[in-house]
Amino acid sequence: MSLVLTDLRLTYPDGDRVLTALDGVSLEVAAGQLVAVVGPSGSGKSSLLAVAATLLRPDAGRVLVDGVDTGGLSAAQRARLRLEKVGIVFQQPNLLASLTAVEQLLAAHHMRGGSVRRQRRAAAELLAAVGLDGKQHRRPHQLSGGERQRVNIARALSGRPAVLLVDEPTAALDHDRGAQIVELLAEVTRQHQVATVMVTHDTEHLDQVDEVVEMRDGRLSALSGRR
Ligand code: ADP
Ligand code: MG
């Protein structure tokens, strides 16, 4: 299993009390598997991704990424682990306005080091693989919302992660473009043998995913299993 989340508990301070965002959440995702987490706004989906990404430390429970127990890692070690093993696609495509599509990927590569020529070729290949052949030198404002989301996905994959975490990728897209993005996620999950968790508040486009789980008030339950 590339991602193993066990009995996670996460609370946020809330005045004199605490708000329980994750309440005994467990989830396992294998390489090449796409799991959708559905649930209403405020149910804890983004919190789950933040903990899985090691951006937030849970109050209790374990997070294993590609076999590494992240509980004992320092902040610097977690940052290194994210760089090497975790791809993250946030709700808002947070692309840098001044960079072209290929440069968005190279900026991420730069932090990892290695040969620039090879990286440039790998970045161009990835962009072509997500359907952006011929558009690699466009800047964000020259791309549609769906295309920006594709750059985001390519960038998240560019470090060859074991785990891909995707937050509401279809939120800003119309039905057809949303369906295409989920289809793309299913495709890259298989091609790159990455363990993908996609969070979404809508229950459309779920025919492409291997498993659907539902989040309600910080608790996770199986909705359907078709692996
Ligand atoms: P979802 O992504 O399903 O909308 P979130 O994980 O964002 O849910 O939020 C779960 C709960 O935690 C909500 O009640 C939200 O208001 C609360 N919450 C999220 N982030 C914070 C934070 N940084 N500080 C305090 N409360 C938070
Ligand atoms: Mg959210």
UniProtKB/TrEMBL annotation:
An example of a Gene Ontology cellular component annotation for this protein is:
plasma membrane
Matching InterPro entries: AAA+_ATPase, ABC_transporter-like_ATP-bd, ABC_transporter-like_CS, ABC_transpr_LolD-like, MacB-like_ATP-bd, P-loop_NTPase
Q: Which residues form the ABC transporter domain?
A: 3-227
Q: Name one Pfam family in it.
A: ABC_tran
Q: Which SMART domains match?
A: AAA (SM00382)
Q: What SUPFAM superfamilies does UniProt report for this protein, alphabetically?
A: P-loop containing nucleoside triphosphate hydrolases
Keyword check for NAD, yes or no.
Answer: no
Entries under CDD domains matching the protein: ABC_MJ0796_LolCDE_FtsE
Q: Does the keyword ATP-binding apply?
A: yes
The entry lists its GO molecular-function terms as: ATP binding; ATP hydrolysis activity; transmembrane transporter activity
Q: Which keywords belong to this entry?
A: ATP-binding, Nucleotide-binding, Transport
What's the protein name?
ABC transport system ATP-binding protein
This protein's species is: Saccharopolyspora kobensis
